Amino acid sequence: MRKKFRYIAALSVFALALTGCGGQASSGDDDSGGGLTTVSVGQVQLSIFAPMYVAQKKGYFKDEGIKLSLKNIKSGQDGVPLASSGKLDALVAGFSAGMFSAIDSGLDVKVVGSMGVQPAHDEPSPSALVVSNKLVKSGDYKSLKDLKGKKIAAAGGIGGTGAYYISMALKKAGLSLNDVKLVNLGNPDIPTAVKNGSVDAAFASSPFYEQVVNDKAAKKVWTTPKGTSGTGVIYGGKFASTDTAQHFFNALARGAKDLQGKKRYSKENVKIIADATDQTPKQVKSVPLYTWLPDLHPLPKQLSEMEKAWMDVGAIKYSDPIPQSKYVDTDFAKKAKTAK
């Protein structure tokens, strides 16, 4: 089991300290030879960013005159300063309270697209909120309102996407993050914490939430609504102003279109995702995949709700929401829709 999950656990370690990121990225201006422009992209190697891997393997970036230079980063929060300074052109990453704080401090980045979104509920869920069966069997947990005062684990802690998802569940019960005790645990550590009683509940990704459910240690009680997304495409401000930025997005959107519906589980696409994330095809198929919007358009309403949830719990210190015109740009997705 540990071998099966090794690739996910390894993502918590900053294995590559952005080799080659010490200098300036191309910002869409430098010709790399052969008529291609190099675009430097920060990434965490996860299947949720499959549109980029599919587009790369199938030559869609090359069709747009682009050569990708992928740089491993620990998180989106770590990549935002690099994109703002021009050391990276773009990121595919998760959102966080730290990202909003960085933008508020003046860092120049734009959220230009979404990545993985929650599939319909008639499909297996890539993530879920689970509650210890000890609480369920004792009667201490009957509904979401009974989470008040309980310890709930989530990767990234109070400022991570998991905390935002938990806030969505709590809101249904008239609660907020201030009504629970949030514990910062990496996904691989969550099953053990639930089983030994260190936490009462957890929001975790597959296969970790499934592990405790299958072991009868926890019950799945909630998952995010269809269309919910905590990840996206972020451009550095300088790169966003170049023609290459639209070409990059066009290729991404082509990749997303190839992953619609059951096509995301095709043998070809699964192999591409496996190779890009250092997995085997069997490992990729063993966990549910997210879905992707065909044009990868950003989700401003969700970004606003994320910011508010983190402000309410004190993960964000400023008092007034950032005007979305400052950090969200929907034009790239709109233009990608009409691109040939």
What is the topological layout?
Layout: H1 2-9, E1 37-43, H2 50-57, H3 60-63, E2 66-72, H4 76-85, E3 90-94, H5 97-104, E4 109-114, E5 127-132, H6 133-138, E6 151-154, H7 161-172, E7 181-184, H8 190-195, E8 201-205, H9 208-214, E9 218-222, E10 231-236, H10 237-240, H11 243-257, H12 267-276, H13 281-285, H14 300-312, H15 331-338
Parallel strand pairs: 1-2, 1-3, 6-7, 6-8
Antiparallel strand pairs: 3-10, 4-10, 5-8, 5-9
Helix pairs in contact: 2-11, 2-12, 4-5, 11-15
Overview of this protein structure:
The protein has 340 residues and is α/β, with parallel strands linked by helices. The chain has 2 domains: 2-118 and 228-338, 3-Layer(aba) Sandwich (D-Maltodextrin-Binding Protein, domain 2); 127-222, D-Maltodextrin-Binding Protein, domain 2, CATH 3.40.190. It is 36% helix and 16% strand. It has helices spanning 2-9, 50-57, 60-63, 76-85, 97-104, 133-138, 161-172, 190-195, 208-214, 237-240, 243-257, 267-276, 281-285, 300-312, 331-338; strands at residues 37-43, 66-72, 90-94, 109-114, 127-132, 151-154, 181-184, 201-205, 218-222, 231-236. It has a 5-stranded mixed beta sheet. A 5-stranded mixed beta sheet has the order 7-6-8-5-9, with helices on both faces. Helix 7 links the parallel strand 6 (151-154) and strand 7. Helix 2 (50-57) packs across helix 11, helix 2 (50-57) crosses helix 12 (267-276) and helix 11 (243-257) packs across helix 15. Residues 1-25 have low confidence and may be disordered.
